[in-house]
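Researcher: Next sequence.
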Amino acid sequence: MMMHRFQYGLVVLLALTGPAAAAERLPAGFVYLRDVEPSIAQDMRYAGFDNFTGHPLPGYGAPECVLRRAVAQALAQVQADLARDNLSLKVYDCYRPTRAVRAFMRWAQESEKEPEKAGARAAPTKRFFPALEKRRLFASGYIATHSAHSTGSAVDLTLIQRGAAPAPPFDRSAAYGSCTGPAAQRAPDNSLDMGTGFDCFDARSATASGANTPAQQRWRALLVAAMRARGLHNYFREWWHFSFGPRGGQAYDFAIEGRAN
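Model: Next structure:
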């Protein structure tokens, strides 16, 4: 009897320290995307240094995509649809704690360090907004004081070839090219070439921009159509941003924690 109790207790302990326990720490209705569709690639930019602030954002304690269950299920349907064309989704950002949104606001209000002279290397994050002044990012609609991401109903993503090799590691000391430049000169990414990088605050990032090549426009159109077919709608200024369901809803600030394997 004592052995049976011990074995039962061990099973309970393992259950409470595995993925199920991590999921139980999420608010009701939220899930880890990896638990719903593990084949969707994840490149969670705000948990690392490859983003427009140049450092990890508050609340991103782990590089995991967390979403409303209905959104994750819709993405799983998109993933199944894309598999017929040997394509896959890759997510850059999902649920975003409101503390991270506040950090965006603080960053945007900080003074921008301009190059000392023409031709000097720009600050590392300038590659994300090559044609705009930092203080104009709010007025241009690229950064908002409130984000649908904080409700768990928005996602930033792109397309990759199914089974594509991971991108090379991001090098914080490298002088990567502008987000509007040739894909080979931008920060490493294994995505299909959409004409700009992710979080590129530039007119070329508008989904319908005619400044991109026909091939780049076709990839964007394919992504938008695949997402729309499953109820996810694009934000016209950003080819990578999609939302699901009605606007509004409760914004959350819980931290993203690691999900045990």
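Model: The chain has a mean pLDDT of 88. The chain has one domain: 22-111+123-244.
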